[in-house]
Amino acid sequence: MSSTKKIKINVLLFYFCYIVILAATMFRYVTGIGDFLQKIYQPIIYVLLLVGIMNMEKITKKKILVLFLLAFLVMITKYISGTNTILLLCLSIIAFKDIDFDKFVKFDIRLKIPFTIIVSIFYFLGLTAVNIHYRDGIIRHSMGFSNPNVFSNYILAIVVEYLYLHRKKLKLRDILMILIGIFFIDFYADSRTQIMCIALLSAMLLTRQYVYKTLFENKIFKFIVRNSFLIMFVLSLSLIQLYKAENEHINSINSFVSERISTSTAIYDQYGINLFGHKLELVTSLESKLTGKKAIALDNLYIYILLSYGVLSVLAFYIFTYKYMKYVFKRKEYVIGVIMFSFFIGGMMERFCIEIVYNIFLLYFSYILYGNKKSITTTESQEKLEAAI
Prior knowledge:
It is a single chain. The protein is mostly helical. The chain is built from 20 helices and 2 strands. The longest helix has 24 residues. The chain is globular, with a radius of gyration of 21 Å. The protein starts with a helix and ends with a helix. The relative contact order is 0.12.
């Protein structure tokens, strides 16, 4: 089989897998469609594994050993936690080879926009699960997803990907896109974390000619960004300890962040810490309404990784994110660095940034794994596929 043929198969299979994963996730609660897509979704993990194996042809022995150890950790945590999140993330990164990142971002946004619109239309037609929240007298709509924050995650992803594609020079229409995204999140879902992420990224992009010189070449700022995962993890643990000490300032913060600190503390005390994590018995707000069980959520990303996947996974994530940030700084991909940095800050309140359907920028790690440059020569078949979509 020729090299061109291999690249063609790998690319087509990855795109197919991603379409199924995204559609199954976004249409999960649509009547008559969700169950069907979930049945197709299950075998996709094996297809991604096949693509990953096909991509191993020219990888170094050292990296193969690292991947083997990582695979061992991933399988243990999957078995214990009962979730596919980390497995899907790792397989997607390994399978994301010979694909131009910018073109994939364009492809993804062309899927997410119509998918979000379609699910929202189904919601207003009464063809999806309905999960309405109330906060301070404000109605928060799920818009056809499991809860309002999930809808906001997709709007955030669309806005961030749009800004990434227009990163070289923001125009008036780009600012309008930012405001439209914030309006939809605020009006329908009232999700503060996602609005904060958009505002932070927008501010840094709009002032980039000053920010790049003053911040991105600053050693202290580089250290903070490269170690942002570890810093947020330590901060999350510190908040739990301060809450236990009944610090009045932390109690005020806890009220502002919708009791997230107290909830994290209760779950932390219930399960404790070990190397490989636990199977957390969490109940989403939608499941709570359908079953009558009390809702139990753990929204802090760092405490979730610690309790669900264990200490070794926290260490692996830190190494992963440190190398990632170091690589994007070295290549002066500052916008990707800012995106991930803002997502890591958002991880204090939401878990979206480790799931590829919300954060496709995780796939950029593939270039570190395979030693590829950002701009990869695309085969004719891939260009036709991306142009068609």
